[in-house]
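Milestone 3.1: sequence recovery, worked example.
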């Protein structure tokens, strides 16, 4: 890999945590008969992966801050830099034995994401980007798609589950968008959704009520692949709000117009 020292630290950490998660993922299928057992097992796998990431990332850069889904926030001596980590994005897929989940690691500097890694360990797909260095899938440079016609375009979102109050809003967005596009997918990993936009596998993605750790790495990967990523509500802060809309440049306005209700 040709990235910076920090990027190499991130990749090493992602691969190490990935090995642990892949091992646990193989076990999950055997536990399906006991739903409670499987749920507890996955929580332990998630926490074990976060510990590996914490040891690797904070071990290598002890003065950087830390924000992660399971372990919360730790300030660093250097207030300008922090790791933003989701050890397992796509937990429901993992629990159901679906091989679509990832580790997400971002490095933030002065409020901007400067490097991101999204690692789909089950498929050995490592998406990464660094400011000014482009976005990559393993050794291949990524570029968002150039599809401009809505009727040919494929999108992804997250449909609120488990009684969340924002379901009607998402259903309205789907009702506006679906008649004029080639389809909307709900894969269950926001980090991979953004990596897939960067890879040109679909044209755009939007979701609300996410957290910074779901989307921080994806943001730089999309942008370095030439895509646009904006707050869903214009003028807001993407990471603070946990609401994002991203797409290739040529389709962004048409897509965002429909999603936002234009
Ligand atoms: C979830 C995934 C999912 C999104 C959820 C997230 P988790 O993260 O990114 O796609 O729709 O809102 O919470 O819980 O699997 O880390
Ligand atoms: Ca997540
Ligand atoms: Ca998670």
């Amino acid at each position: 890999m040709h990235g910076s020292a920090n990027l190499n630290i991130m990749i090493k950490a992602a691969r190490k945590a990935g090995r642990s998660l892949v091992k646990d993922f193989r076990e999950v299928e055997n536990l399906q008969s006991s739903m409670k057992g499987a749920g507890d097992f996955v929580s332990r796998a998630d926490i074990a992966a976060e510990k590996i990431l914490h040891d690797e990332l904070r071990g290598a850069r002890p003065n950087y801050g830390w924000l992660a889904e399971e372990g919360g926030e730790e300030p660093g001596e250097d207030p300008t830099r922090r790791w933003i980590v989701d050890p397992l994005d796509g937990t429901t897929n993992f629990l159901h034995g679906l091989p679509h989940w990832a580790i997400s690691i971002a490095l933030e500097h002065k409020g901007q994401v400067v490097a991101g890694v999204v690692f789909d360990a089950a498929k050995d797909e490592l998406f990464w980007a660094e400011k000014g260095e482009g976005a990559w899938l393993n050794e291949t440079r990524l570029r968002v798609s150039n599809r401009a016609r809505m009727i040919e375009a494929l999108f992804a979102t997250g449909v609120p589950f488990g009684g969340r109050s924002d379901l009607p809003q998402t259903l309205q967005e789907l009702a506006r968008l679906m008649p004029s596009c080639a389809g909307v997918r709900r894969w269950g990993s926001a980090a991979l959704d953004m990596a897939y936009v960067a890879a040109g596998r679909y044209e755009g993605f939007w979701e609300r009520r996410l957290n910074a750790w779901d989307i921080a790495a994806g943001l730089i990967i999309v942008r370095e692949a030439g895509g646009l990523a904006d707050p869903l509500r214009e003028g807001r802060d993407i990471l603070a709000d946990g609401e994002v809309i991203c797409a290739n440049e040529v389709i962004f306005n048409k897509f965002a117009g429909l999603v936002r209700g234009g």
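The pocket of calcium ion (ligand 3) is lined by residues 69, 86, 88-89, 91 (CB under 6 Å). The first helix runs from residue 5 to 28.
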